[in-house]
Amino acid sequence: MAWDPKTYLNFSAERTRPAAELLARVEMEAPARVADLGCGPGNSTALLAARWPDARIDGLDSSREMLTEAAKSDVRANWVEADLADWTADAPYDAIFTNATLHWVPDHRALLPRLFGFVREGGVFAMQVPDNGAEPCHRLIGEVAKEKSWAGKFAGLCYWQNVLTFADYYDILEPLAAKIDIWETRYVQPLAGEDAVYRWMSGTGLRPFAAALDDRERAEFLEAYRTAMRAAYPMRASGATLYPFRRLFVVARK
């Protein structure tokens, strides 16, 4: 699935804010080696580089388009193309940071212990994942997907089902971690302009569904979804659309 960094960054402030709030809860003075898993166009990596200017930072992503955009920035990092489903670290990290990425990777009961295993003793694993599956933006994808002949093309694409509960994450990490901090935040984001939530989803959640269709089906599917989203998220007289978004955060020290 190809990614479009410019579409993704249409809401860069809203997408970067959770990364900043996750990083603020990481207690570490001067790590030597840091990984940003799912670095995208480098917006989260920039926070890490500013926080730890002397660290070696590896920004990993499976999207060549995202890494190309990241490399255009002035962020001091090593950009690495890698799929987290089978990625292996060549040496332990002092800090592994991952913002809005792991929901794309299945089987978190196996994934988290493996990633946590790449953290050195005394190091930190910090993750944030969207926990927004109950919101209309996701529910309506499923409803529109059932309407026409394209329904059979969407098997296994409901990526938000990969996200577990906060209790599940605690249970997974408790035997491995010396300290665990878990919290949830529900952001109420005022987005500007026509079809604001549709445009947000076009940069993330809609992409695997659109990619599964041919050109005619894609146009029909996206228009049906856009219409449904206008009803679910009406634009206010001011031009703002309120978009509630729940996110789940974990910081675990080894």
Tell me briefly what this model is.
This protein is an alpha/beta fold. Helix content is 36%, strand content 24%. It has one domain: Vaccinia Virus protein VP39 (Rossmann fold).
Fold and architecture overview:
The chain has helices at 5-8, 12-24, 43-51, 64-72, 108-116, 136-145, 166-173, 196-202, 207-211, 215-232, and strands spanning 33-37, 56-61, 78-81, 93-99, 119-130, 179-192, 240-253. With 254 residues, the protein is α/β, with parallel strands linked by helices. It has a single domain, classed as Vaccinia Virus protein VP39 (Rossmann fold), CATH 3.40.50. It has a 7-stranded mixed sheet. Helix 5 (108-116) links the parallel strand 4 (93-99) and strand 5. It is globular and about 50 Å long.
Strand content: 15-25%
What would CATH call the homologous superfamily?
Vaccinia Virus protein VP39
SS element count, helices: 10
The main pleated sheet reads as: 7 strands, mixed
The helical percent reads 25-40%
**CATH topology title:** Rossmann fold
Give unreliable regions as ranges: none
Overall shape: globular
Tally of strands: 7
Computed over alpha carbons, the radius of gyration is 18 Å
Separation, N- and C-terminal Cα atoms: 34 Å
Number of domains: 1
Overall average residue pLDDT: 91
Structural class: alpha/beta
Architecture, CATH level 2?
3-Layer(aba) Sandwich
Q: According to CATH, what is the class?
A: Alpha Beta
Adjacency order of strands in the biggest sheet? 3-2-1-4-5-7-6
